[in-house]
Amino acid sequence: MKIILLGAPGAGKGTQAKRLAEKYDIPHVSTGDIFRANIKNQTPIGIVAKSYIDKGQLVPDEVTVEIVKQRLNEPDCQKGYLLDGFPRNVYQAEELDKISNVEKVIDIEVDFTKLLKRITGRRVCACGESYHVDFLEGKTECARCGGKLYQRADDNEATVNERLSVYQKQTAPLIDYYKKAGKLVVIDGDKAIDEVFEEIVNKLK
Ligand code: ADP
Ligand code: ADP
Ligand code: ZN
Fold this sequence. Notes:
Low-confidence stretches: none
Bound molecules: adenosine-5'-diphosphate, zinc ion
CATH class: Alpha Beta
Strand order of the largest sheet: 2-3-1-4-7
Order of helices and strands: EHEHHHEHEHEEHHHEH
Largest sheet: 5 strands, parallel
Number of strands: 7
């Protein structure tokens, strides 16, 4: 199964990706997670990526596309993968088309007014799981792995507004791109996490 998860920042891509990757036993490939790991390890890619991520802008295509090409070439991706956060513009989608045949693109749609609250209340674990302060009841550790939860540096209001504007200008056109290719599956992301998951699984059948 070769799947892309599309959706605005905060739509729930990471949350669903983690569950879907487990259910279908395919790797979860998140460009955001790859960049954050590089930033943590202070690699050359991490240093470049950080300057863009801090501003809420896209990391340049030549860096991002290369990372994804390498990742999709690894043995575990040969049976399938779940791409989360890539592609984010038409150029990246075209480059992906050259190297792999994506089967379905799941567009998680959430009312735009809800996204700011979702993102500024997000708390994450290094294992990739996301939580929201509204449901944590004061807990500070990951329910999956016990890791310490933290807030992403780019999950502040100013950066989020820039990311939402970048999404509308650069990423939203992908909805049409994949609709034309006959690959688009639209999901109502305003529902509860479990309901969204169920809807995705049903539509993948
Ligand atoms: P994305 O990867 O699309 O940026 P996340 O999966 O990290 O989004 O989710 C963003 C925030 O919204 C997190 O705080 C997460 O716990 C919360 N969230 C995810 N899905 C839902 C949902 N269906 N309903 C309410 N909150 C959600
Ligand atoms: P979110 O789902 O909350 O937008 P991500 O973790 O997917 O967050 O991405 C965080 C940041 O990493 C983005 O704002 C962007 O700067 C960078 N990034 C992630 N994926 C890409 C991509 N495909 N192309 C360019 N930049 C990316
Ligand atoms: Zn964890």
